[in-house]
Amino acid sequence: MAWPSGAVDSGAAAPELIRAEPGPYKVKPIDPGGLDVAGESETAFETSAGQDTDAQLDLSKTAETPIAPPKVKPEAAPATEPAPAKVEAKPEPAPTGGKGSVIQLGAFANQAQAERAWSALSARFPSIAAMNKMIIPFSGGIRLRASASSPAEAKQACQALKVAGENCFVAN
């Protein structure tokens, strides 16, 4: 038999057996040490499991200046329930710019969810607040879109949203 170094096994000696120390070989240390990270949380794991943790984004890293959310005035509770108001069909605002000047902000199960999303996004992003809101029904629910004055403005607003961790795309 040839060995890697080119030497030949002469068979003169049997290989030596190395025995393990008696007792357990895996013992938990008294002071395990390790890195202690201040503020460490399970937010990423909870969110991936579907839990809503109301996490806040650091908008100081975005190109736009964040604005304060609008203050909500508490409404007085009526003594009796008013008659339900008639729902009026509002005409859809037409896109103000050319092709590619509309961004889709999300798709929702109902109009109330789309309205809440618009309120949240327009409060956080002045560029979105300056656009025309478009709520478009489709077979699967409601699409929330915003129309910009130009394709460049739509692209810039969508990029700002993506930087802040939101989803959007320029719709044609």
From TrEMBL:
Database matches in Gene3D superfamilies: Sporulation related repeat (3.30.70.1070)
InterPro entries for the chain: SPOR-like_dom (IPR007730), SPOR-like_sf (IPR036680)
Residue intervals of the SPOR domain: 95-172
Short name of one Pfam family: SPOR
Protein name: SPOR domain-containing protein
Any coiled-coil regions, as ranges: none
UniProt-annotated stretches for the region Disordered: 1-101
Taxon lineage: Bacteria, Pseudomonadati, Pseudomonadota, Alphaproteobacteria, Sphingomonadales
Composition bias type Polar residues, residue spans: 44-54
Compositionally skewed regions (Low complexity) per UniProt: 75-86
